[in-house]
């Protein structure tokens, strides 16, 4: 099994709230309600590890989940019902970020998240993959273009202290009824794909790999795990 155990570690609101950088990690970013927390649950085979909501703005911190650490009962550090572990050979962190662009989040809060994200993407040395989640039905929005712009400015800059890979994940592909037949649920419309490529080009993020997923049907799980292994292997 790829995932033996996962537990919530901490919710960070600034760099000093992040756990010790002692293993690889991957981050899930994207606009509010795109399905970040749902995907984290699907990938880790959990129903409610990361909290999900119909209402945008559910995730309010940088939530750290440890995958495949060893339960360390001696430490007796309990978070909810879970026991924090110690690092195992193939352990890594998944970081679920607050969503972008939710109107009801106050401007001050948004600015704080945005600044934290800049600093995080630039300086977190153990960051291996940045997953940007985009809704498969509607393709990249204004908000997504802003995220790409941010990532494009950081990736490959002299300030960047990691060699994080940038990967696009299309979410909710099960709902992509217009273009996908039941025979081929992973098919995303040409117009979404083209728009995605245009937006990538305009924001200088290179041509990132695109993975089509559904948290509902578990489509794309193995493909995303190929990237998660990049974080687990160091
Ligand atoms: P924030 O934390 O607010 O940024 O949202 P999020 O990106 O974490 O989204 P979340 O996982 O909470 O999901 C938002 C809504 O989309 C929920 O109602 C989910 O049930 C739904 N959803 C997420 N993934 C899928 C999917 O693959 N298919 C379908 N049909 N619905 C999904
Ligand atoms: Mg969330």
UniProtKB/TrEMBL annotation:
Segments forming domain EngB-type G: 22-234
Family under the similarity heading: Belongs to the TRAFAC class TrmE-Era-EngA-EngB-Septin-like GTPase superfamily. EngB GTPase family.
Listed name of the protein: EngB-type G domain-containing protein
Protein source organism: Stephanodiscus triporus
First and last residues shown, out of full length: 469 to 702 of 702
